[in-house]
Structures are given as structure tokens and as C-alpha cells.
Design goal:
Distance between the termini of chain B: 58 Å
Strand content of chain B: 15-25%
Radius of gyration of chain A: 18 Å
Strand content of chain A: under 5%
Biased composition (Low complexity) (chain B): 122-143
Number of helices of chain A: 9
CATH superfamily of the largest domain in chain A: RNA polymerase sigma factor, region 2, helix turn helix motif
CATH superfamily of the largest domain in chain B: Gamma-adaptin ear (GAE) domain
Organism (chain B): Fuscovulum blasticum DSM 2131
Shape of chain A: elongated
Structural class of chain B: alpha+beta
Number of strands of chain B: 16
Number of strands of chain A: 0
CATH architecture of the largest domain in chain B: Sandwich
CATH class of the largest domain in chain B: Mainly Beta
CATH topology of the largest domain in chain A: Rna Polymerase Sigma Factor, Chain: A
Distance between the termini of chain A: 59 Å
Largest sheet of chain A: none
CATH class of the largest domain in chain A: Mainly Alpha
Oligomer: heterodimer
Structural class of chain A: mainly alpha
CATH topology of the largest domain in chain B: Immunoglobulin-like
Domain VWFA (chain B): 325-503
Protein name (chain B): VWA domain-containing protein
Keywords (chain B): Membrane, Transmembrane, Transmembrane helix
Helix content of chain A: over 70%
Chain lengths: 180, 679
């Protein structure tokens, strides 16, 4: 019965103290949390750490969940915010290179027969600013509409549209460079 | 990159493939951590947030678990047997205390309940704050002992109590009784004596139906006081007639755009909700309509849920619709002299003409001073002739509404051939004061014509004179819709987009009846539909008139339901309530019955659907909830708590989904406007 209960109902029951509802909810969404964390950071270890931190904080966070947003939108927002916190911490630790950049550097050390597409992805993501990276992770990676992505990132639909056109521009520039 | 695909597609493909499969060990670790923190949180905040809005079937175990937590904390372990004994005492006494009328300041029954406090002050406060001690090996031994003790002792003692005799004749009734008593015990035992007293005193003093006092504004509801919360055990069946009108929303919009807050009597929540198109699935072939049910947490009350019932009318092939006979009955009284009234009316009708088929017929009847036929029945193909007649209309004189309606019906009857649809469209600012001695006689007249197959719809124009109540009454009796047209855009929505829906009935006398399951729903409240309530027995009575549904139209109704044991309950549970049904239907929230007649038929058909509570909510239902919230804020509803404009706007924005016509964003902007006006 819990398996087909909507997220929002489960969240409400979990807030009321229903352990099974909470277990179902977090079990249902772990993969989604990890997937987005990875798309945002490009680093497996960081993504796993983020997912674990989010799971650990979820019982307390869930209390703030109101039925105003769809549960998944709300959850995505938490993942994005956690990633931003992580970036801030990394910045204060003066680690210039962030996730996708690290990944690319690591890749280059690896055997050259690694799939070319993955290298291209890392290079492309490393080139985008954090805002643009968040946007493509949601719009392309999670296949959200621009309105949904805007709701998660707390910006207007128009901003998302503008960012996506910006991404396109940069990718074209990159492709032009490579063609030379 | 030599690939000539769109770089965005490449990026998308890469990102889709990027995340590595989750590592089972990392996943298990994260989930275990989540559960650990969940348990810790339940324990530390127990007193602040009682867990009574859990599903009722879990109530008993919930109590037991809380007892376990309570007993396994270290201070409690130091005082094992005495604590167990005290808990038995509380379990027995509290249910009795709830039932007796204890006056405030007379706490004899509360005193024994408060007794645990003196011997165990640290234990009760620490039980809330201390983390659970599952790692203590002693705990396992202690857990086993006290658990059966209260569980077995309580029913035995209850049987002996004289006050409880009626409640405990059957064994299962006693168990239910105990299940009810346990959450109380759990809530009050660790909370300490100081909090118990008001709880116990307050409980019996709540009148059934006692609601927070209504704002004086709501007294303006002449015919439609907001639906109260009903107790399922007393009144399990809710019956109402469908309402596809949208006039109230346009009225609210027009009032807000004038910079004035609408008064509560201008707000009919169901008409606001029904204004918006929702993506309900279409009916299957041969069916007149299809129902869609969804269940979601209530935005304004975390202890309740919203059950949204959507009806989607079938859209018959427009191509083979029968020819349409329209009689426009146009109010040309002096009060219509206004570009926003007669001017807008002319523009609106001109917009509608191209939507008609060449074979459709149009007639114009004007009424002012004396009624007269301005344009005899004319084929829609002769557009110029109709437009010229429209242009010649001028306002002047007083309103002779009744005379005009009689003439319009006579014209309509003359136009109707076999198998054709006729409808009178009354366009007015609602001023029916002159020449009408008896409004009830007019309604009867319209109802009789309805039975002869001529329907009436009402288009309201302009402000200042608008007689909303008369418009509603006439349209309801005429099996039609009442629309309020405040802008040309609204005229387009009503007369062009919804032409087929407004003019072609697919089902008559559509009645909705929901029977709630008292085992799952202790209280319910129908939001809106106050003017459409039906008696329970009217549901099966085909003689009783109800709303019609036009081609492709939608009707949405929202119930707010409260589970038994929820802290959001407004009324105390009945002590002698019937035992809930124990068969396979015990899990259902309720049962939805629909009755309707095919147009012109006298026998009704019945459809039945169970509401399981697992129907998913969509953006559509969440948007409908936001609009229901909007309407209730305007009505100063007492059910919203501190939920207000910010939350309604956030919910509507988040759930606006696909909004090709911009209706939904318009509603958000109206909410923003209302928020500013409300300050």
C-alpha cells in the first residue's frame, strides 16, 4: 500500500511520526538525490557525501515541507542548496578547481581510450559557470521544464530560458574552437 | 568535436548517462543514517508535535512504541515497576475524564492523571529530551515486561468501570476503545501535569459543530453560508448538484480591478475553481463524462487532506452537431447605456457570430419599456443583417424583464424543429425590478420551459446594477450557465472558446453524492457548492432538478477531510460511535456516486467509484487547491489558519503548469493585487 502512496502523503505521514512512510520516501528518492548531486558536481565521492548528508538532514528538513510545492521540486531545491553550500565551503578552502574540473584533470591522466563523449561532457561542463551548470543539470539531466527548473533554483522562467540560450552559445563556441 | 548534432542534445545525452549507478553500500549507509535521525527527531520533539495525525490503524502500536521509548530512557529504567503501574492508572482514568462534563476550575479527575508528576519529575521531562537508548543491553529485558502489562490491564479495568459499561460490551469494541485511549495516554503521560489539566478540561466543553466565531462579514450570505465541517459518523453522505458557472470569478476579478476587495457574498469558491481548464482525461467512447479523483495534503492544514473530484464532459464531434437556435434577449434599459454594458455586449455577440454555422438561426429580442422583436429568426449566414440589427440597439427606458422573457421563449419555440437545440441567451446588467411582481413565478416559468426543451443562459454585464442572485436563480432554473462578462477577453472565453460547452448539453440533472468511510474520515467539509446542496434523498429522486453539464465542460469539487485521531479534528469522537466496517472496504476513504440523465431523458443513470486515498495529485489539482484557498481567503474563511496570500500565490505559481491562455497567471496576479488591497 505504501508503494503507491503519493510522495506528498508519505511526507505528511512521516512528519506525523510514521516510520514506514519515511523509509519508503527516502528509499524511493535516494537514487534521484544521488543522480542530481552527481550532475551538479561531476564527482562521485562528493555526490555520495552530499546524498548522505541530505538523507541525514531530511527528517528535520521534512518538517518545513508544506504542500505548496510538489515533493520532488522541494527535494531538488534541497539538493541544489546543499551543493551550493558545498561549493561555498570549497571556495573558502581556496580550492580553485571544482568538481567537473577535477574530473577532467583526473580523466586526462587515465587511459586515452576512455569514451570520448564523457571527456567532452566533462570539458563542456567545466567551461560553464556554476549557475549554467545548475541549469543544465536540471533542464537537460533531470528533464525538467524551464518553469520547474526556475521553481527549484528560485529564478524566473525567463532567466532559465536565457541561461539555456547562453549554454548553447558557449557550446557552439567550444565546437567552433575544436573544429579549428 | 566533429559531431554535427546540436551541442545541447550532446550535453543532454552526456548528462543523462553521467551519474554512476548508486553504490549499494553508500545507499544503505545513507538510508540507515536517515532512519536513525528520523527516530531521534521523533523522540526529541514528541511533546511539541503529538503524532496523532497518523493513520488510525497505527494508533495502538504508536502508543506502545512511545511507551517503549519512554520506558527505555535511563531515568525511567531506574523506576521500572512504579512507572508501569502509573501508566496503567493514566490509561484507565483519562478516557473517563474526557467524557465527563468537568467545569473549568474543578479538576478532580485531572488530579489523578497529574499524579505521575510528583514522584517522577525528571523522568517525564527527560523522556522528551533524552535520545533513545537502543544500545543499552538492559533495555531489551525491560522492554518485554511493561508492554503486555498495560495492554492487558487496561481493558480489564475498563470493563469494571461503571461509566464504561456501555462502551465495552463486545471485546472488539473494547480494543477500539483502548486504541483510542492509548494516543491520549502517550500524549499526556510524558507532558507533565501542568499540560494535562487544560487538555482534560477543554475536551468535553467543545460543542459538536462549535467553530471559531465567524467574521461579521459572513453574515451577508443570505442563501449561502460557508459549508460547515460535518462529522462523518453523524452525516456520512454529502450530496450536491454540479455547477459549471464561472460568473463569480469574473465578478471577483472585476471588483479587484476596480481596486476594491470583493465582499464574501460575491465569492463562490466552486465557480472560481471551475473557471480554469484542467487536463482531466477524456471520457471513454459512449460515456457522457469521466471522473478523476485525487488526494493530496491540504496546503492550509497539515492535519487534513484534500480530495478533488473532477468531472470531464464528453466532447461530441462538433462537426455533426444539430443546428442551433439562439434567441438573444437583450436588456436595453437605461442602465445598460454604458460602453462596458451595451457596448461590450454588441462586441461580444459580434465575436460569437463567426463561430456559428450557416444553418444556425439567430433572433434578437430587446426589452426596455416594452419588449419587442428586433430581429426575426435569421440564418447565421446572413451576418450583415444580424450585425446591422445589433448596431441599431440603443438603451433607454426601464426594464420589463418578464415580458421580454415570455416573448423570447415564444420566438424560440417557433424556431425549434425536430432534434434541434434551442436556447435563450439573456444579456443583462441584472436589473429585473420593473414589471415583475413575483420573482418566484418567473423562476417557475423558466423551469417549465426547461422541461419543454428550451434552456436559458445568462450573460451579465457591467457593474453597479448587477443582480447576481437573480442571474444565478434564472440560469439554475433554466439549465444554463450564468457568466459575467467584464472584458472582451472574457467574452471570447465564454462565447467563442466555450461555445459548444455552453450551448450543447450532454447530461442533465448531474448529481454528485459522496459517502465517507467513518473508519478513514472522521470529518469532512465540502469547499463551495453552498448554493447547490441537495438533500440526501434527492439523489435518487429523478424529479429533483440539478445542474447540467455541457459538451466538454468540467466540474471540480474539493473536499477537505480529516482522518480519525488527527489533531486537526474540530469535533471530539463519539464515545458510542459504531464500530467501523471491517470488511475489504475498510481502507477506502469513501464512495463516489454520480447520477445524470441523458438530455431529454427522464430516467437517470448511476456511476459509482471508490475513493482509495492513493490517487495521485497533479499540478492541476494543486492549482485548483490554490484557487480554493484564494476564494476562502476572500471569504475570510475560518478554516485557513495562518495560511494567507503568500502561500496561496506560491502554491498557484508552483502548480500553474501548462497555461496556454494565461488564465492561471492572471489569477496569480489577481491574488497579488488582492494581497496589496488587503493590507
Amino acid at each position: 500500500m505504501l508503494m503507491d502512496t503519493p510522495d506528498e502523503t508519505l511526507a505528511q505521514a512521516a512528519n506525523g511520526g510514521d516510520r514506514a512512510a519515511f523509509a519508503t520516501l527516502v528509499g524511493r528518492h535516494y537514487d534521484r538525490i544521488l543522480g542530481l548531486a552527481f550532475r551538479l558536481t561531476g564527482n562521485r565521492t562528493e555526490a555520495e557525501d552530499l546524498a548522505q548528508d541530505i538523507c541525514a538532514a531530511l527528517p528535520a528538513k521534512l518538517r518545513q515541507f508544506r504542500a505548496e510545492a510538489r515533493f520532488t521540486t522541494w527535494l531538488y531545491r534541497i539538493v541544489v542548496n546543499a551543493t551550493h553550500d558545498l561549493r561555498r565551503r570549497q571556495a573558502t578552502r581556496a580550492r580553485a578547481a571544482d568538481g567537473w574540473g577535477d574530473w577532467e584533470i583526473a580523466r586526462q591522466d587515465e587511459i586515452a581510450t576512455e569514451r570520448e563523449a564523457q571527456d567532452w561532457l566533462a570539458a563542456a561542463m567545466a567551461r560553464l559557470s556554476p549557475e549554467l551548470r545548475d541549469t543544465v543539470a536540471l533542464v537537460l539531466g533531470e528533464e525538467m521544464t524551464q518553469a520547474e527548473a526556475g521553481a527549484v533554483l528560485g529564478v524566473s522562467e525567463g532567466t532559465i530560458a536565457w541561461r539555456m540560450s547562453e549554454v548553447k552559445k558557449r557550446l557552439r563556441a567550444m565546437a567552433a574552437e575544436e573544429a579549428k | 568535436m566533429t559531431d554535427d548534432r546540436d551541442p545541447l542534445d550532446l550535453l543532454k545525452a552526456g548528462l543523462k548517462a553521467a551519474p554512476p549507478p548508486p553504490d549499494p553500500a553508500a545507499r544503505a549507509r545513507a538510508l540507515a543514517l536517515a532512519m536513525e535521525n528520523f527516530d531521534r527527531l521523533q523522540d526529541s520533539t514528541e511533546a511539541a508535535r503529538p503524532k496523532e495525525d497518523r493513520p488510525p490503524q497505527a494508533g495502538f502500536l504508536n502508543g506502545v512504541r512511545s511507551m517503549l521509548n519512554f520506558l527505555t530512557t535511563r531515568p525511567a529504567l531506574a523506576a521500572t515497576t512504579s512507572v508501569a503501574a502509573l501508566i496503567v492508572g493514566v490509561a484507565v482514568l483519562l478516557p473517563v475524564a474526557q467524557k465527563l462534563p468537568v467545569a473549568p476550575g474543578q479538576p478532580p479527575l485531572a488530579t489523578p492523571a497529574a499524579a505521575p508528576q510528583p514522584p517522577l519529575p525528571e523522568a517525564s521531562s527527560l523522556a522528551q529530551a533524552a535520545p533513545p537508548a537502543p544500545d543499552t543491553p538492559v533495555a531489551t529485558g525491560t522492554v518485554e515486561v511493561p508492554y503486555p502489562a498495560p495492554a492487558e490491564a487496561a481493558p480489564k479495568v475498563v470493563v469494571d468501570m461503571p461509566e464504561a459499561e456501555a462502551a465495552a460490551p463486545a471485546a472488539d469494541a473494547t480494543l477500539d476503545y483502548l486504541a483510542e485511549a492509548s494516543p491520549r495516554l502517550r500524549r499526556e503521560a510524558p507532558a507533565g501535569g501542568a499540560e494535562i489539566l487544560p487538555e482534560v478540561v477543554a475536551a468535553p466543553s467543545v460543542e459538536p459543530m462549535a467553530l471559531p466565531q465567524l467574521d461579521p462579514n459572513t453574515e451577508a450570505y443570505a442563501t449561502a453560508e460557508a459549508n460547515p465541517v460535518k462529522v462523518t459518523a453523524e452525516e456520512p453522505v454529502s450530496t450536491f448538484s454540479t455547477d459549471v458557472d464561472t460568473a463569480s470569478y469574473a465578478l471577483v476579478r472585476s471588483t479587484l480591478n476596480l481596486g476594491v476587495m470583493p465582499t464574501p457574498d460575491q465569492v463562490r469558491v466552486e465557480e472560481m475553481v471551475n473557471y480554469f481548464p484542467y487536463a482531466y482525461p477524456a471520457p471513454e467512447a459512449g460515456q457522457a463524462f469521466r471522473t478523476t479523483v485525487s488526494v493530496m495534503p491540504t496546503p492550509w492544514n497539515e492535519g487534513t487532506r484534500l480530495v478533488t473530484i473532477g468531472l470531464q464532459g464528453a466532447l461530441p464531434a462538433i462537426a455533426d452537431r444539430p443546428p442551433l437556435n439562439l434567441v438573444f434577449l437583450i436588456d436595453t434599459s437605461g442602465s445598460m447605456e454604458d460602453p462596458m454594458k451595451l457596448g461590450l455586449l454588441k462586441q461580444s455577440l459580434a465575436l460569437m457570430l463567426p463561430e456559428l454555422r450557416p444553418d444556425d438561426q439567430v433572433a434578437l429580442v430587446a426589452y426596455a419599456g416594452s419588449a419587442g422583436e428586433v430581429l426575426p429568426p435569421t440564418r447565421a449566414a446572413e451576418k450583415d443583417k444580424i450585425l446591422a440589427a445589433l448596431d441599431s440597439l440603443a438603451a433607454g427606458g426601464s426594464t420589463a424583464g418578464a415580458e421580454g422573457i415570455e416573448l423570447a421563449y415564444k420566438v424560440a419555440a417557433g424556431m425549434t424543429a425536430q432534434g434541434e437545440v434551442s436556447r435563450v441567451l439573456l444579456a443583462t446588467d441584472g436589473d429585473f425590478n420593473v414589471g415583475l411582481s413575483d420573482p418566484a413565478a418567473l423562476e417557475t416559468f423558466i423551469a417549465r420551459k426547461r422541461d419543454e426543451g428550451i434552456y436559458l443562459s445568462v450573460l451579465g454585464f457591467g457593474r453597479g446594477n448587477l443582480d447576481d442572485a437573480t442571474m444565478q436563480a434564472l440560469a439554475q432554473n433554466g439549465n444554463g450557465t450564468a457568466s459575467y462578462i467584464d472584458t472582451l477577453a472574457e467574452a471570447r472565453k465564454v462565447l467563442v472558446d466555450q461555445l459548444s460547452g455552453a450551448l450543447f448539453p450532454i447530461a442533465d440533472d448531474v448529481k454528485v453524492q459522496v459517502e465517507w468511510n467513518p473508519a478513514q474520515v472522521a470529518e469532512y467539509r465540502l469547499i463551495g457548492y453552498e448554493t447547490r446542496a441537495l438533500k440526501r434523498e434527492d439523489f435518487n429522486n429523478d424529479k429533483v432538478d440539478a445542474g447540467e453539464i455541457g459538451a466538454g465542460l468540467q466540474v471540480t469539487a474539493i473536499y477537505e477531510i480529516t482522518a480519525p485521531g488527527s489533531k486537526a479534528l474540530k469535533n471530539d469522537p463519539l464515545r458510542y460511535g459504531a464500530a467501523p466496517a471491517a470488511d475489504g472496504t475498510a481502507d477506502e476513504l469513501g464512495f463516489l456516486r454520480l447520477r445524470w440523465k441523458a438530455p431529454g431523458a427522464s430516467e437517470s443513470q448511476l456511476t459509482e467509484t471508490a475513493i482509495t486515498g492513493r490517487e495521485q495529485a497533479t499540478d492541476d489539482t494543486r492549482f485548483a487547491a490554490a484557487i480554493a484557498g484564494f476564494g476562502q481567503i476572500l471569504q475570510d474563511s475560518v478554516y485557513l489558519g495562518d495560511w494567507g496570500w503568500d502561500q496561496a500565490i506560491a502554491l498557484a505559481l508552483d502548480a500553474r503548469g501548462d497555461d496556454p491562455f494565461g488564465y492561471r497567471i492572471e489569477a496569480v496576479n489577481l491574488m497579488r493585487l488582492a494581497q496589496s488591497l488587503d493590507r
